[in-house]
Automatic annotation (TrEMBL):
Record-linked InterPro entries: Lon_prtase_N, Lon_prtase_N_sf, PUA-like_sf
Location of the Lon N-terminal domain: 17-213
Upper lineage: Bacteria, Pseudomonadati, Pseudomonadota, Alphaproteobacteria, Hyphomicrobiales
Organism: Ancylobacter amanitiformis
Name of the protein: Lon protease-like protein
Amino acid sequence: MPINRPYGGPSELPSLIPLFPLEGVLLLPHSQLPLNVFEPRYVEMIDAALAGGRLIGMIQPAFDLAGRPLDGGKALAGVGCVGRITEIAESGDGRYLLALTGIARFRLVKELEVGTPFRQGEVDFEAFRDDFTPGFGAEAVDRGALLRTLADYLDANELEADWEGIKNAPNEALVNALAMMAPFGPREKQALLEAATLAARAEMLIAVTQMSMARTAGEGDTPLQ
């Protein structure tokens, strides 16, 4: 995905960014996330981002161990990912259709008290320096295991995929695209985001997918009469 402004490290990103909380939505470094923005406060956020560094921090609401949102859904997760607006179009009816290209994950230091209708936070990128290097750790991914699990999942759900495109995708693009598209809940998505390495993210994706298939198979069993 083309980007006009490369970022070499944490020092090249601001410590204060607008925050876009979306449950179950995942943005990962060097990956692209399409968004349809229509709420007035977030339309204003996009306008502000376009007037500045074109940066938006994607972050999920925080959940407890039982999957319940904390503080009525107002509390935010501790880790998100900042993206740069690399594509944008106006719909003509007040919406923005845009794409964010992921740059790096961040830790949320604190949410700021601001006068804008959209939320803003102080963030720290230091723990995720490796995110600034495209393909970092890609050679450690067990690609074979990932593709076998994907094939099993597609077969179990009678789905098709562009295998030619999948086979040609680099490891980083493959792992991150599958993680972003995976139909899992917010806790699983957050775990995929926070995985320490690309290989760890791939292993987690395999494990979560296998557990999902096992649950589905179990639900299909009927008790003996």
